């Protein structure tokens, strides 16, 4: 028996399996996208493998509803287009301010059974491939209820997608390996690092921070090939800042200081901003006479995708689809795809 050959073969197989795991590109489609004039027809479906519709609102009686009934036709269009383009449509349940209802549901076996039945019926009748549980602001006290809800959903959706969000910097206690490793995959959210309360300018996200967050989750025993870091498609502006470590005078341009990535590219077409990449944090900064903008651009997101691919994570999730640039050459989704799904043709279709 050639032991060296066996060891080499196993090593190569392990590397191949690790790289094969990094094949998910997940895009969030929030219900409010309609108000920024972004619709299902505007999505470039070849850039994603999964779309998460965010999100259905649970009530304390276990029922579900659209947060805005005006978006129901958009959801229907999204379901049709996902099916036509072989993209997995997953419905997120929960979200902001839903933790009270989820806690009540998880605290009652009867309500939990009703809730799971309603989720299963909704997913089945609305042409989705599965569900994502988005229980925010979990505490150690919620660990038992969260585990019960995850287990109930996994049992009910045998053969379908059951995913969950994860907020490791809020609390880690509820996210036990025993529970999380039963899921199809996990989208890992992290807090904004730069806010108006910060006295000096720091990166808002960054590849290094994302890598540390993934290591924190994996260090708790959660399988790497289930973890997707969530990359934010927005920058944050601060008046008077001149670079990382400088002071500022509050939020700058944009909607309360928030700027979609696609708008940033328009700003940077002018000579008003000097854009640079910070290799220490793996993030970008743009500085003008009036303000500085911290954001994730092509180099930093490429670093995230490379980390995911090289370390056997599941893929990359993005928040949200409406904020990417439509041109492939500056698209963050295309940047991710070129690393994780290089066989896909990302060139725009020729106009007839």
Helix and strand arrangement:
Layout: H1 3-21, E1 24-30, E2 50-58, E3 64-65, H2 72-84, E4 88-94, H3 99-106, H4 109-125, E5 130-134, H5 143-156, E6 161-166, H6 177-180, E7 185-188, H7 207-219, E8 227-232, E9 234-239, E10 258-260, H8 261-267, E11 274-278, E12 283-287, E13 291-295, H9 298-310, E14 315-319, H10 332-340
Parallel strand pairs: 1-2, 1-14, 2-4, 4-5, 5-6, 6-7, 7-8, 8-14
Antiparallel strand pairs: 2-3, 9-10, 9-13, 11-12, 12-13
Helix pairs in contact: 4-5, 7-9, 9-10
Weakly predicted, low-confidence segments: 1-20
Return the CATH architecture: Alpha-Beta Barrel
Beta-strand content: 15-25%
Q: Could you say what the CATH topology is called?
A: TIM Barrel
Total beta strand runs:
14
Number of discrete helical segments: 10
Counted up, domains total: 1
Report on the architecture of this protein.
The chain is α/β, with parallel strands linked by helices. The longest helix is centred in the first third of the chain and has 19 residues. Strand 2 and strand 3 form a beta hairpin. Helix 4 crosses helix 5, helix 7 packs parallel to helix 9 and helix 9 packs parallel to helix 10. Helices cover 33% and strands 21% of the residues. The chain starts with a helix and ends in a 12-residue tail after the last helix.
């Amino acid at each position: 028996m050639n032991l060296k050959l066996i060891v080499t073969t196993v090593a190569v197989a392990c590397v191949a399996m690790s790289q094969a795991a990094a094949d998910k590109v997940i895009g969030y489609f929030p219900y409010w996208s309609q108000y920024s004039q972004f619709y299902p027809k505007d999505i470039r479906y070849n850039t994603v493998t999964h779309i998460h519709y965010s999100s259905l609102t649970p009530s304390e009686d276990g029922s579900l509803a659209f947060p805005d009934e005006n978006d129901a036709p958009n959801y229907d269009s999204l379901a049709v287009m996902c099916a036509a383009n072989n993209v997995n449509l997953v419905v997120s349940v929960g979200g902001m301010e839903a933790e009270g209802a989820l806690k009540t549901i998880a605290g009652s076996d009867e309500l939990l059974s009703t809730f799971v039945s309603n989720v299963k019926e909704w997913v089945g009748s609305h042409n989705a491939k599965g569900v994502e549980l988005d229980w925010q602001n979990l505490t150690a006290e919620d660990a038992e209820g969260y585990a019960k809800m995850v287990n109930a959903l996994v049992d009910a959706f045998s053969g379908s997608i059951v995913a969950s969000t994860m907020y490791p910097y809020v609390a880690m206690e509820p996210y036990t390996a025993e529970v999380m490793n039963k899921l199809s995959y996990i989208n890992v959210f992290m807090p904004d690092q730069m806010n108006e309360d910060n006295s000096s300018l720091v990166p808002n996200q960054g590849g290094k921070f994302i890598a540390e967050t993934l290591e924190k989750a994996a260090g708790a025993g959660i399988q790497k090939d289930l973890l997707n870091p969530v990359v934010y498609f927005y920058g944050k502006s601060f008046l008077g800042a001149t670079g990382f470590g400088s002071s500022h005078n509050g939020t700058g341009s944009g909607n309360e200081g928030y700027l979609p990535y696609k708008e940033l590219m328009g700003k940077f077409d002018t000579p008003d901003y000097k854009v640079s990449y910070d290799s220490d944090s793996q993030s970008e900064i743009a500085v003008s006479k009036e303000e500085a903008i911290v954001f994730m651009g092509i180099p930093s997101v490429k670093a995230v995708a490379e980390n995911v691919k090289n370390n056997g994570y599941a893929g990359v999730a993005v928040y949200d689809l409406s904020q990417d640039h439509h041109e492939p050459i500056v698209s963050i989704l295309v940047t991710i795809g070129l690393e994780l799904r290089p066989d896909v043709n990302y060139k725009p279709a020729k106009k007839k």
